[in-house]
């Protein structure tokens, strides 16, 4: 979704043109995605990002990929702040949730043993994330032995603290959502025969009345500790509307929570330690995966857990923002550092559904739009606060406009043999583009809009860092796209193709125009690495930017403008790599495959 924005840089450019000087931007230390007040502090030594683990009852769809790409972009952005050191101090996990009644039922419907279904679908998720360039450091499956050991230890910690008791649990149960629901959260909808059938008011999935003896967690004890956690950490849940929603939930009744099911009803799961008649509730089992990955209950775990950031969909907010923090507190552990929440994807305005036949296959999208193209689309159009809509024409229009035409066209212009026959980073002429335009001499050629461009691109790394900290990656990409448009306007205004390298009057300005445009492209390529890693590598390689010059920590824009040497000036450009991003021919576009029932 593209939002219009008032460009403060334009106002600054007009002010500069009236005689003010343009201050040299500082090189801020780009801290991790922590709270606002901590942005100028040194980054934490470690960071641990997680996606939800995904149910294996069906093949992956674009919503699953979106969750993974959001976490991947956050992780990649952090690694760029200190290449090498940050990479070693950053962990990123994803995986599959393979226990529970829903998996048991899906396996039965497919005529497969549950373990075989889990193997098949988990492999699909692993393959999708590998193909999409998701840079996770761990792929966990809840059927692994290491996870079973972690869950059993966590259960023992709750039991040792007197937080589990056995009792009769009665209420509505939704197998699709794997949760119990109070009466207020159940509605009636006409069934196949027209009779009213009970369904979850939130998801619309069928529910059934369940009454059984289970182990129960004393959740009711944790209302005030959860409130205190959220009051003390106003950015614990981002974006803010989701934190506000959790606080509203904490104003409601918070009954104790069933954390097991009878093994005769649910056999596909982890047995309760010491009581084989009960199976541990699938959500407790699944949530502990975040601990398993960082070595719980070993010593290694203690140095990683305080830095945890969960990326989740809004449909599992209650599990992650109420049940999970309460369980952690109950086990003597701290809640996660941050919970980043995103909304869902619809298809042409409709919720994705197997019954509608509109569940978009993400692997087909990667083939059709390229890996970088589809990564860019999802992260550029996805807005965490509300649902976003997918349809083929939108993808093609966005990628052709922003990657093929605007960014790719700019790179092609500035590196073309005719425009840049020496194939180098041309020299910057300070008399043509003086830092203080009010004192400019007769050779000055830069105008107010050109100073506005310099201001905007100089501010871009900090703006992008702030957007990442606020979990607004789409705004970071909008800011980059806006600056790409400004840079194209700069090149179009000064028409370097009309200038001659042979003219002693034209040549210094021609070199300056290309130098500024190439510097802008270097900044864009560096900042796009978390979202379009291969495309960014192609762009930076064409500019001759080495692998050790692509970090964010020392990203200095246009140093010659501020009177400093530029390490790229006079350097040979990299080899020709062809089109940065070929246009997608919409007239030949084939519809992306969908999963059919």
Word description of this protein:
Its EC number is 6.1.1.10. Residues 48-414 form the Methionyl/Leucyl tRNA synthetase domain. Its main location: mitochondrion. This protein is α/β, with parallel strands linked by helices. The protein has 2 domains: 47-342, HUPs (Rossmann fold, 3-Layer(aba) Sandwich); 391-585, Isoleucyl-tRNA Synthetase, Domain 1. It has 19 helices and 20 strands. A hairpin with a 2-residue loop joins strand 16 and strand 17 (350-351).
* Record field, number of beta strands: 20
- Assembly state: single chain
**Outline, from the CA principal axes?**
elongated
CATH architecture of the largest domain: 3-Layer(aba) Sandwich
Side by side, the strands of the main sheet go 3-2-1-14-15-9
Termini separation: 31 Å
CATH level-4 homologous superfamily of the largest domain? HUPs
Task: From the 3D structure, determine the CATH topology of the largest domain.
Answer: Rossmann fold
Instruction: Supply the number of helical segments.
Output: 19
- The total number of structural domains is 2
Provide the low-confidence segments as ranges: 1-21, 27-43, 587-597
User: Which structural class do the helices and strands define?
Assistant: alpha/beta
Main beta-sheet strand count, sense and barrel state: 6 strands, parallel
Radius of gyration: 27 Å
Overall mean confidence score, pLDDT: 88
What share of residues is helical? 40-55%
| Residue fraction in strands | 15-25%
CATH top level of the largest domain is Alpha Beta
């Amino acid at each position: 979704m593209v939002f219009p924005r008032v460009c403060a840089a334009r106002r600054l450019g007009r002010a500069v043109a009236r005689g003010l000087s343009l201050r040299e931007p500082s090189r801020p230390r780009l801290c991790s995605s922590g709270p606002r007040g901590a942005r100028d502090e040194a980054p934490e030594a470690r960071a641990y990002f997680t996606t939800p683990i995904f149910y294996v009852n069906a093949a992956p769809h674009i919503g699953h990929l979106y969750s993974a790409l959001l976490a991947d972009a956050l992780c990649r952005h952090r690694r760029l702040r200190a290449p090498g050191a940050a990479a070693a101090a950053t962990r990123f996990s994803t995986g599959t949730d393979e226990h529970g009644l829903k998996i048991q039922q899906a396996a039965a419907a497919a005529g497969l043993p549950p373990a075989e279904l889990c193997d098949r679908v988990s492999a699909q998720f692993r393959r999708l994330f590998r193909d999409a360039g998701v840079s996770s450091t761990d792929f966990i499956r809840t059927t692994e032995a290491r996870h079973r050991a972690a869950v059993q230890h966590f259960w023992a910690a709750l039991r040792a603290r007197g937080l589990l008791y056995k009792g009769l649990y009665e209420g509505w149960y939704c197998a699709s959502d794997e949760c119990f629901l109070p009466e207020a959260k159940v509605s009636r909808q006409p069934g196949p025969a027209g009779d009213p059938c009970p369904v979850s008011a939130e998801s619309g999935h069928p529910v059934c009345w369940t009454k059984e003896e289970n182990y129960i967690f004393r959740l009711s004890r944790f209302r005030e500790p959860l409130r205190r956690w959220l009051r003390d950490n106003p950015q614990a849940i981002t974006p803010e509307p989701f934190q506000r929603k959790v606080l509203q939930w904490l104003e409601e009744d918070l009954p104790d929570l069933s954390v097991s099911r009878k093994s005769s009803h649910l056999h596909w799961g982890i047995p309760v330690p010491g009581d084989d008649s009960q199976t541990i509730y699938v959500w407790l089992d699944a949530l502990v995966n975040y601990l398993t990955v960082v070595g719980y209950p070993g010593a290694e775990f203690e140095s990683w857990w305080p830095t945890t950031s969960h990326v989740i969909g809004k449909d599992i907010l209650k599990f992650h923002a109420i049940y999970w923090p309460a369980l952690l507190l109950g086990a003597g552990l701290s809640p996660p550092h941050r919970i980043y929440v995103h909304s869902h994807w619809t298809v042409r305005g409709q919720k994705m559904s197997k019954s509608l036949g509109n569940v978009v296959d993400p692997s087909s999208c990667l083939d059709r739009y390229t890996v970088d193209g589809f990564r860019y689309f999802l992260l550029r159009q996805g807005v965490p606060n509300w649902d976003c809509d997918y349809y083929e024409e939108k993808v093609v229009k966005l990628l052709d406009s922003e990657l093929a035409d605007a960014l790719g066209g700019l790179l092609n212009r500035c590196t073309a043999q005719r425009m840049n026959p020496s194939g180098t980073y041309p020299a910057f002429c300070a008399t043509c583009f003086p830092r203080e335009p009010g004192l400019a001499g007769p050779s000055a050629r830069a105008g107010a809009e050109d100073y506005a461009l310099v201001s905007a691109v100089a501010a871009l790394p900090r703006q992008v860092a702030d957007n990442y900290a606020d979990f607004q990656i789409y705004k970071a990409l909008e800011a980059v796209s806006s600056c790409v448009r400004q840079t194209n306007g700069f090149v179009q205004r000064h028409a370097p193709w009309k200038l001659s390298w042979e003219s002693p009057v034209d040549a210094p300005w021609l070199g300056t125009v290309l130098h500024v445009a190439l510097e802008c492209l270097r900044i864009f390529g560096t900042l796009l690495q978390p979202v379009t890693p291969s495309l960014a590598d192609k762009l930076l390689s064409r500019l001759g930017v080495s692998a050790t010059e692509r970090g964010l920590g020392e990203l200095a824009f246009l140093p010659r403008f501020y009177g400093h040497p530029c390490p790229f000036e006079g350097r040979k450009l990299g080899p020709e790599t062809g089109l940065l991003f070929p246009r997608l021919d919409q007239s030949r576009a084939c519809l992306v495959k969908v999963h059919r029932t």
